[in-house]
Amino acid sequence: MRDFPSRQWSKRSLGRLIGALLGLIVLSAGVFAIGYSASESVLQGIGVAILITVPVGIWLVKQAISPLLDLRTTVTHLVAQGGLAPEEDGDERAWGRALTRLVAEAERRIATLESERAKLFAILESMVEGVIALDRQGKVMLMNPAGRRLLGLGPEPVEGQSLLEIIRNRGFADVLELCRTPEVVEPYRREVEVHTPVPRTLEVQAIPVPFEPHTHGMLLVFHDITTLRRLERMRAEFVANVSHELRTPLTAIKGYLETLLDESSVEEFPARYRRFLEVAHAHADRLGRLLDDLLNLSDLETGKVVLRCSSVALYDVVHESVAMFEQDASKKGLHLINRVPTHFVVHADRDRLSQILVNLLDNAVKYTPSGGSVTISADSLSDSQVVFRVQDTGQGIPPEALPRITERFYRVDKARSRELGGTGLGLAIVKHLVQLHGGMLHIESKWGQGTTVQVTLPATQVLPAS
Predict the structure, then answer these.
(1) What is the dihedral of CA 224, 227, 230, 235, to 10 degrees?
(2) CA angle, 446 then 451 then 454, to 5°
(3) The dihedral of CA 409, 325, 310, 386: what is its sign?
(4) Which helix (H) or strand (E) holds 294?
(5) Which carries the bigger pLDDT value, residue 465 or residue 446?
(6) Reported confidence tier of residue 209, pLDDT bands at 50, 70, 90
(7) Class level of CATH domain 310-461
(8) Residue-wise pLDDT tens digits, 346-371
(9) How far apart, in Å, do the first and last CA atoms of the chain sit?
(10) What pLDDT was estimated at residue 71?
(11) Residue extents of the structural domains in the chain
C-alpha cells in the first residue's frame, strides 16, 4: 500500500480521518464481540459462556482500538502544542507513514472480524437447535433456520418484530416474563407446547444476555423433545396395562396359597410342603408390592394422581407412620424417635403425605443395623415452608450413587435389596409425590455414617396457636 501524500493533510483533515477510522474499528469490533459471545453461549452452555466470552469480547475491542487511541492522544497533544505546522515536511511524512500502517492494520482486523462473523452465521445456520436473540423489549434480533422450522414460521423476515406477536404462545410468554426479573442470572428451563402445523413439545432454555451496555436482552435455545415424551407416555401406558393384567392372576394365586397354608396345620400335611407354601406366599406378596408400586409410579408420571390438599398436622401423620414400623424396629432393636413439633401444619394431601413417610421409614428401618436409630424431625424455613427430615444411622450411600438414588429400579446394593424385599421404586415415588406438592427432596449421606432425607413442603402454620 502506497504512502499518503503528506502535504495534502491538514490538522483538521488528519483529525477527521482518525475519528472516522476509530469509529469504524470500534463498531466492527463491538459487533464481533457480541457475535462471539452469542456463538460461544450456544456451543458451551449459556450461563458459563457469557461469563467467559464477554471479557473476551471486551479484550478484543481494546486490542482493536488501542493503536488508534494512542495515535489520537498523540495528535491531540501535538495540535495543542502547535506541532503540526504545514511547513514541517518531515513530521508530515512521518504522519503519512503512520497512517498508512494504521489503515493496513485496520483492514487486517476488519477482515478478521468479517471472517469470525461468517463463522458465527455458518454455525447458527447448521444447528439443529433453535436460537433466538431478543432485545430488552422482546423484539427479535436474530433467529436461525432451525428456530423458524420448530416454530412453523415461513421465510418472511422476523427481525425487529416482537416474538409474542410472531408466535402468540403462553409458554414462551411465561419464559420471557420470568427472565426479565433481575433475580434470574442462571439458565431457566421449561417445556413448552407449540401448536404449529405439527404439534411439538419444546424444551426451552433462556437467560438474560448483556447485548448492550447497561441493558439486557435475552437468548433462547430450544430443541424438539416430542418423540422423547411420546416414548415416555408409551412406556408408562405399557407398564400400567401389564400391571393391571398381572394383578388378577396374582390375586388368585395368593388366595389359593393362603387357603393351603390354613389347611396345612393338620398333622398329615408334611412340614417341608408347608415351608414351600410359605416361600411361595412371601414371593407372591413381594410381586404384589412391586405391581402396586409400578401402578403408583405410572399414575404419577402420567398425571393421573390428583391431590386433595388440606391443612394437615405433621406430627399426627408422623406418629401414625412410626406406629406402623414399631414391631419391625423392635425386632432389630432400633429406636424410632419422633421429634416433630406438634404445632406444625402443612398444606398437603394427607394420604399421599403418609405414603411419602412410609416409603422413607421403610428404607430407613431396612437399611439400619441392629442397635441403630431412626429420627424424624422438622423445622420451619419461613412462614410458608416446613422441612422434615428422616435421619438414620445405617450404612449410608456412596457418593457416586447419590445422583441416581431416586431413579426407578436403581439399587446401591442389588443383592441386599432383593434379600430385604425392596422394589427399587420407593424413592422414585417419593420424588414424584414431593414435586406434585410443590416441594423439594434433598438427600445427604456419608458412607458408613447414615443417611438424611429432607423434604420441604408448603406450610399453613409454623408457630404455636395463641
Answers:
(1) -130
(2) 120
(3) negative
(4) helix 271-301
(5) 446
(6) confident
(7) alpha beta
(8) 999 999 999 999 999 998 998 888 88
(9) 90
(10) 56
(11) 6-125, 130-224, 228-301, 310-461
* Contact between residue 361 and residue 445 where contact means Cβ atoms under 8 Å apart: no
- Interior angle at CA 162, CA 156 and CA 168, nearest 5: 85
Distance of CA 72 to the CA centre of its chain: 49
20: pLDDT strictly greater than 90 = no
The percent of residues in the chain predicted with pLDDT above 70, rounded, is 72
Using DSSP's 3-state secondary structure scheme, residue 430 falls into helix
Q: Which residue has the cell 414462551?
A: 172
Instruction: Give the DSSP H or E segment for 446.
Output: strand 440-446
Angle at the Cα of 196 from the Cα atoms of 195 and 199, rounded to 5 degrees: 55
With beta carbons less than 8 A apart as the criterion, state whether 129 and 146 touch.
Answer: yes
- Residue 7 carries which side chain, given as an amino acid letter? R
Please report, to the nearest 10 degrees, the dihedral formed by the alpha carbons of residues 76, 79, 83, 85 taken in order.
140
Overall average pLDDT of the 275-281 stretch = 84
Pick the CATH number of 130-224 from 3.40.50.1980, 3.40.50.920, 3.30.365.10, 3.30.450.20: 3.30.450.20
Sign of the CA dihedral with 48 first, then 54, 57, and 63 last = negative
Q: What is the mean pLDDT of residues 17-34?
A: 43
Mean pLDDT of 392-398: 87
The CATH code that applies to domain 228-301 is 1.10.287.130
**Three-point CA angle 103, 107, 111, nearest 5°:** 170
